[in-house]
Amino acid sequence: MMFEQQMRIDMRKKEEKRSSSSSSPKGTTSNIEEDRLEIVDLSGMSLDSLPNPSLNLATICKLDLSNNNLQSIPESLAARLLHVVVFDIHSNQLKKLPNSIGCLSKLKVLNVSGNLLRFLPKTIENCRLLEELNANFNQLTMLPDNIGFELTNLKKISVNSNKLVFLPHSLTYLTLLRILDARLNNLRCLPDDLENLINLEVLNVSQNFQYLQSLPYSIGLLISLVVLDVSYNKITTLPDSMGCLKKLQKLKVEGNPLISPPVEVVEQNLQAIKEYLIAKMNAGHRSPAHKKKSWLGKLVKYGTFNSRLSGSREEREGFIMPEYRSIDSLASPRYMGMFSPRRLFSPRTYFMTR
Question: Could you tell me the pTM of the whole model?
Answer without folding.
Answer: 0.75
